[in-house]
Design a protein that fits this description.
single chain, 430 residues, alpha+beta, four-stranded mixed β-sheet, four-stranded antiparallel β-sheet, 18 helices
């Protein structure tokens, strides 16, 4: 696909002039735009309210970008409202996303690349979410160090619908303290005020930073850094990832004081603590970014949280539910991206037994699916014999051809063994 950002659609620039440019000029300089477009393409994503996907937007921008760029630099550009999308959460709830148009995602990404370099160095070292060179695993390791140091009580704070309740006026005020460029502030305000389109009707709001836009995570860090700095001033040991904050203390009494402090700090920002998901409790067994900590004779260890394991099984069931008509190799190939991602994220786990159990459960399910696909006893007998099963084993499994789950636990695992799954390309967790 041809890039919409070419030499003809942006004003030329001299490298020597870049230092004197305003932030918007730097954001919409040709090379920065090309990097932004590459990222937008890689992230894919759905169309916004204009109905244009990535390829259609590329064609549109080939002719329209000079006008859009002029409007951006002159301060008259007005972003499109975001398209509301509701997606199910793993715990059964729902999350609302605001999907900007691809054009607005490009503009936000270009702006993000300039602002992040300016703002990120000013954030607290205890903040890990949506920051270059930092990730969730770093936050988990930091939390483990605090628990290992004897801070075995956690003040676990979850903010209620954080991205929906960001106060625009407060956020803009905090931005002005960090960014002197009025044109940038004006454009960010325009994005916050663009509203949400629901069933064809645009709803305006004085609060909310829609999840789905590239700028929202950076704006969240700008707002919440104020709380981070207050905790730092008081000498607390804490970890924050986006709107999830854990403070580690030595006693429940100290934890209660910290919880009261956090509620006051968040109230100043017009944010509310989700009482049902927040607690002052033991750090052991408490879920944090999908992990949990447990005490062993050799110290504090990391484990995959129980909820994360349940979500893993549920996702495997979903990915293998409609397996009729597909070969087992195709079923395994369909699982591969999810398994690789899950394994990479939870690679810090220090509980090899859990990995083995999940591997065994997954192979058990796939064996049952293979039996169900063969269906008839005669087919099962023929296929198992072709795979090297003894006549007695093949006959016994075929005689109970509808007991897929039971069969997959006993005789079948000697034929459809680990080596068989390895040949199909099934990703091992352990």
């Amino acid at each position: 696909m041809r890039s919409p950002i070419s030499d003809e659609v942006n004003r030329p620039q001299d490298e020597s002039d870049s230092a004197g440019q305003g932030l918007l000029e730097r954001a919409f300089a040709r090379e920065n735009l090309k990097r932004a477009w590459k990222r937008v393409k890689a992230n894919k994503g759905a169309a916004g309210v204009d109905g244009l996907d990535i390829e259609q937007t590329a064609e549109h921008l080939l002719t329209q970008w000079p006008v859009i760029c002029e409007h951006l630099l002159s301060g008259v550009y007005r972003p499109s409202p975001v398209r509301r999308v509701v997606i199910p959460k793993p715990d059964g709830g729902e999350r609302e996303l605001g999907i900007p148009t691809v054009t607005d995602r490009l503009i936000q990404q270009a702006l993000l690349q300039v602002l992040q370099a300016l703002l990120d160095p000013t954030f607290s070292e205890h903040s890990y979410g949506f920051r270059p060179g930092r990730c969730a695993q770093d936050a988990v390791l930091a939390a483990q160090r605090y628990v290992s140091s004897g801070r075995k009580v956690v003040v676990d704070v979850d903010l209620e619908k954080f991205f929906d309740r960001v106060d625009h006026d407060i956020l803009i005020d905090r931005l002005r303290k960090r960014i002197a460029d009025r044109a940038v502030i004006r454009l960010i305000r325009a994005y916050l005020d663009a509203g949400t389109q629901i069933n064809g009707v645009v709803e305006k709001s004085r609060c909310g930073a829609p999840q789905g836009g590239p700028l929202s995570p950076l704006l969240a860090n700008v707002l919440l850094d104020e709380v981070d700095r207050e905790l730092e001033c008081r000498g607390h040991c804490f970890v924050r990832y986006a709107d999830d904050a854990n403070v580690y203390v030595r006693s429940r009494k100290a934890g209660q004081r910290v919880m009261a402090l956090l509620k006051r700090l968040y109230e100043k920002l017009h944010l509310s603590v989700n009482e049902s998901k927040s607690a002052v409790t033991s750090a052991f067994g408490r879920k944090f970014l999908g992990y949990a900590f447990w005490a062993s004779p050799k110290g504090v260890k990391r484990a995959v949280a129980t909820k994360a394991r349940k979500q893993f099984k549920q996702r495997i069931r979903e990915l293998t539910r409609r397996s009729g008509g597909r070969s087992m190799r195709q079923v395994v190939e369909n699982l591969r991206p999810y398994l690789l991602g899950w394994k990479a994220y939870f690679g810090l786990s220090q509980t090899p037994r859990v990995w083995r159990e999940l591997d065994e459960w997954m192979r058990h399910r796939l064996r049952a699916i293979q039996l169900k696909q063969w269906r008839r006893g005669a087919t099962i007998y023929r296929e198992l014999r072709a795979l090297g099963a003894s006549s007695q084993t093949a006959r016994k499994v075929a005689a109970n051809s509808h007991s897929w789950w039971r069969n997959s636990r006993f005789e079948l695992n000697r034929v459809l063994d680990i080596a068989w799954f390895d040949r199909l390309g099934l990703v091992r967790l352990s």
